[in-house]
Design brief:
Elements: E1 6-9, E2 11-14, E3 17-25, H1 42-67, H2 75-88, H3 92-105, H4 109-122, H5 130-151, E4 166-169, H6 174-180, E5 188-191, H7 199-207, E6 211-213, H8 218-221, E7 227-231, E8 236-239, H9 243-263, E9 271-272, E10 278-285, H10 291-296, E11 302-306, H11 320-334, E12 338-342, H12 368-374, H13 376-389, E13 394-399, H14 405-424, E14 434-438, H15 441-445, H16 447-450, E15 456-459, H17 461-469, H18 487-503, E16 507-509, H19 520-526, E17 530-533, H20 538-546, H21 550-561, H22 566-580, H23 584-589
Parallel strand pairs: 3-4, 4-5, 5-6, 10-11, 10-17, 11-12, 12-13, 13-14, 14-15, 15-16, 16-17
Antiparallel strand pairs: 1-8, 2-6, 3-7, 7-8, 9-10
């Protein structure tokens, strides 16, 4: 090979470096025919629709069976997603609307499905966050499957890539990802589309397979058989690197494997500073199957378990038993380690059909604890299940988006009512610590009052930063303003940590800021007692904490609080961390497992 390779930059979806041959997966958009049908064709067309829905369900059941077997890798991540798609096939908004369009507007089944799906996607607000924009992709995948079955086309990948291949595609459906990872041969994924919350990214992180998504044009640049380097930690893809470049990447990969090996030597040691301050390192998870990776990287707890997935892609709400079994599984997987489960944290427009509340600005509307308090029966089901599950482990309950004391009291009152119900029924429970997420400036500013009425704080920096600075970091026009080390953010964090320390209450951080090693000394100086992050980030953060002093963190914090501009603060912190920890910033970009 001669010359330099083509370099693409995408979203760092799953860390690690992989080097291998390109294996393209063709997923061309299906062309949906549109025609008017005669009255005599209506019932036959409805029957075609029913058959296509049934065949689609059988296909997904077959995929599920393959990935849920005893030898399957990461089966539960896949099965949960595939089950969601199977429920979508039965959603009345799809089935009844498509039938109505066939009967009343005399549309062919393919076009009726397309129209019905367009209506469902319209229920997802265009300003919805990244997670829910990706759920629109799920709707597309389900619709494409039904339409392909109506047209007699194969909806799934029918070729298995060779071992060590780099899968390249415009996008991958959950079924595609499940089938491609069925025997764990794939070294990495690269896609044109997608986001960090796409299912390919979620599953890749859980299984520690490097992935870069959202490259925009990898399918136009790479063809099957090309050499590809994937750096999932930095979001870089190199197509057909030169011989010397390939050699450099191989060397970098070997170095990072060695770094990973060295970092994991401290897996079972505490994150204790040189001046004997201990910080608990926990993980943010969405699936129970992420627990082994979390523990393998030295995680001591789950600092944030998101429950939103239980509600998505279905025409009904999860019942108490479904909640209970899910929470029990997580608690038992962690054993005696603490597990902080956050109650439902979604907007009303992201619920199953019939439960949605549309809003012009959902980020500031009826969502999270506000929605739960407006829907007491739905909230009660989740709270009862949490309390029932408490006997199976070390549970902590956390309420999101609390804006003031009145909301916290209302949420606690709902929890106590659920506890009293279960007590009357003779159901065993344990006393459970109750905390709140600090993600609104209003909560940060009255932290001294809120701390009197809860057992712990957890700072959700992703939202706190956005609400404090007034920007949407998914909006490319203002994303440059997203500054975790903005002086206003640092002052907010100090107010919260000072209030917690004065009350003797632990304070955790579960936003992305917690998992960035360059911030570790600042957070140590603030007095954060727990940092919760993705599992692969833990070893590097632990390395920093074990080689630092909390007193040095306080000195650095005092110095940057005297500064004014966010860029100056960021530069000061990075220079300090580079001086103290040579190579840290390079290592930070490569945090996580190395594969391939």
């Amino acid at each position: 090979m001669t010359g330099s390779g083509t370099i693409l930059v995408g979203l760092a979806a799953s860390p690690g470096i992989a080097i291998g041959r390109c294996w393209t997966v063709e997923r061309r958009k299906v062309r949906t025919p549109k025609r008017r049908i005669g009255a005599e064709e209506v019932e036959a067309e409805v029957a075609r629709l029913r058959t296509a829905l049934e065949v689609s369900d059988l296909q997904l059941a077959d995929v599920r069976g393959k990935v849920a077997g005893p030898d399957a890798v990461g089966g539960a991540e896949h099965t949960a997603i595939i089950d969601m798609h199977r429920m979508m096939l039965k959603d009345e908004m799809l089935v009844l609307e498509a039938q109505r369009l066939i009967r009343e507007e005399r549309l062919n089944a393919e076009w009726a499905v397309k129209r019905a799906l367009r209506k469902i996607k319209g229920a997802f607000h265009e300003h919805a966050d990244e997670y829910f924009k990706e759920r629109r992709a799920d709707i597309d995948f389900v619709g494409e499957r039904v339409i392909k079955n109506l047209l007699g086309q194969a909806p799934d990948v029918d070729e298995q890539p060779p071992e060590g291949a780099i899968v390249v595609a415009h996008d991958l459906s959950p079924a595609d990802t499940a089938l491609l990872l069925h025997e764990r041969k794939v070294a990495a994924f690269v896609t044109d589309a997608g986001a960090k919350t796409s299912h390919t990214a979620i599953v890749a992180r859980a299984l520690e397979v490097p992935a870069v998504v959202g490259t925009g044009r990898v399918t136009a640049c790479a063809k099957r058989g090309d050499w590809i380097v994937v750096d999932g930690g930095r979001g870089l893809v190199v197509i057909n690197p030169s011989a010397s470049e390939l050699e450099e990447y191989e060397a970098a990969r070997a170095r990072r494997l060695e770094d990973e090996k060295q970092l994991l030597q401290t897996r079972d040691l505490p994150a204790r500073t040189l001046d004997d301050v201990t910080v608990r390192l926990a993980g943010n998870i969405e699936f129970a199957e992420e627990v082994p990776s979390l523990l393998a990287h030295g995680g001591e707890a789950v600092g944030l378990y998101r429950t939103e997935f239980l509600y998505m892609g279905r025409s009904d709400l999860p019942d108490e038993e479904e909640h209970y079994q899910n929470y029990r599984r997580i608690l038992e997987a962690l054993g005696p380690r603490p597990v902080t489960i956050r109650t439902f944290d979604l907007g009303g427009d992201k619920l199953p059909a019939g439960m949605r509340v549309n809003a012009d600005n959902p980020a500031l509307g009826l969502r999270a604890i506000r929605y739960c308090l407006r829907q007491p029966e739905m909230f009660r089901v989740q709270l009862r299940a949490l309390l029932r599950a408490s006997v199976h482990g070390n549970l902590k309950i956390m309420f999101p988006m609390i804006s003031g004391v009145a909301e916290l009291r209302a949420a606690r009152r709902a929890l106590e009512e659920a506890r009293e119900e279960l007590r009357r029924e003779g159901v065993p429970m344990k006393d459970v610590p109750v905390g709140i997420m600090i993600e609104l400036p209003s909560a940060a500013m009255i932290a001294d009052r809120l701390v009197r009425e809860c057992d712990f704080f957890s700072i959700g920096t992703n939202d706190l930063i956005q609400y404090t600075i007034g920007i949407d970091r998914q909006n490319k026009d203002v994303a440059y303003l997203y500054k975790p080390l903005h002086l206003a953010v640092l002052r907010m964090l100090k107010i919260v940590c000072d209030a917690a320390r004065a009350a003797g209450v632990p304070v955790s951080m579960c936003g992305e800021m917690a998992g960035e090693p360059v911030n570790a000394l600042v957070l140590l100086g603030l007095g954060v007692t727990e940092l919760s992050m993705n599992g692969p980030s833990i070893p590097v953060v632990k390395r920093v904490l074990r080689a630092a002093k909390a007193s040095d963190g306080r000195v650095l914090l005092e110095r940057i609080l005297s500064m004014t501009f966010a860029d100056d603060i960021e530069r000061e912190v990075r220079e300090e961390m580079t001086r103290r920890f040579p190579g840290l910033l390079e290592q930070e970009a490569a945090v996580g497992a190395v594969s391939g």
